[in-house]
Amino acid sequence: MARLLTYRALNSILVLFAVIGMAFAILFLQNYKGLEPCPLCVFQRIGLMVMGVFALIAAIGNPKTKAIQLLLWLGSMAGILWSAGVAARHVWLQHLPPDQVPSCGPGLDYWLEALPMKQVINQVLSGSGECAEISWRFLGLSIPEQALILFSALILVNLLVLWRIIKNKIV
C-alpha cells in the first residue's frame, strides 16, 4: 500500500479531486441547477484551484529535491487551508440566527470594480446575506458543509504528501 502512495500519486489524487470539485461546482451546481456562486463560494474555488495547480506542477514535474517538493507542498496546503477556512466561515454564517445574518451587499462584481483588493477580501470574508442562504442540500448537508468535508479530506491527503516528502531519502 505504501508503495502506491508515492509523491506523484498523492499529488495526482489532489489534482483529480480539484478537477472533480470544480466540475461539480461549475457543471452541476452552476450550469445544471442554475445556482450562482456567492462571494464565499468563489473564494473557496480559488483556493481549490491554487491547490490543484501546485499539485499538478508537483505531479507532472515530480521534483527530486526536498526543497522544491516542500515549496510545492506549501503552495498546495496554503490553497486548501484557505478553502477550508472560507468554507468553515460559510458554514458558520449559514448557522447564524436570522436576525444576525449580515445584510446583502452589492455583490462581488461591484466590489472588484469599486474597491481595492484588500477591502474586497475583507468584505467577502465578512459575508453577506446571500452567503447565509441555503439553496441546495444533499444528504442533509448544505453546499459549504459538503465543501468543508472535501477540503478536510484534501488536507489529510496533503499531510500524506508531507509525510512522503519527509520519509523519502532525497537530498
UniProtKB/TrEMBL annotation:
Subcellular location: Cell inner membrane; Cell membrane
Ranges facing Periplasmic side: 29-46
Transmembrane regions: 12-30, 42-61, 70-92, 147-166
GO cellular component: plasma membrane
Main location: membrane
GO molecular-function term, one example from the UniProt record: protein-disulfide reductase activity
Pfam families on file: DsbB
Cited InterPro entries: DiS_bond_form_DsbB/BdbC, Disulphide_bond_form_DsbB, DsbB, DsbB-like_sf
Xref: Gene3D superfamilies: DsbB-like
GO BP annotations, alphabetical order: protein folding
Cytoplasmic side: 1-10, 165-171
Membrane-related topology note: Multi-pass membrane protein
Keywords, comma-separated and alphabetical: Cell inner membrane, Cell membrane, Chaperone, Disulfide bond, Electron transport, Membrane, Oxidoreductase, Redox-active center, Transmembrane, Transmembrane helix, Transport
Keyword Disulfide bond: yes
Keyword field contains Disulfide bond: yes
Disulfide links within the chain: C38-C41
Record-linked PANTHER family: DISULFIDE BOND FORMATION PROTEIN B (PTHR36570)
Family note: Belongs to the DsbB family.
Job description of the protein: Required for disulfide bond formation in some periplasmic proteins. Acts by oxidizing the DsbA protein.
Record-given protein name: Disulfide bond formation protein B
Organism in which the protein naturally occurs: Psychrobacter piechaudii
